[in-house]
Amino acid sequence: MEDSWTELVHCGLNTTPERPLIPVVRCNLVSHGNANAEADFRFDVHGVRRLAALFGLPETVITSSNDRCNSLEAISILLYRLSYPRRLLDMSIKFGRSTSSLCRIFLCMGKSSCDLNYVQHLTLYNCD
Question: Which top-rank group of organisms is this from (predicted)?
Answer without folding.
Answer: Eukaryota
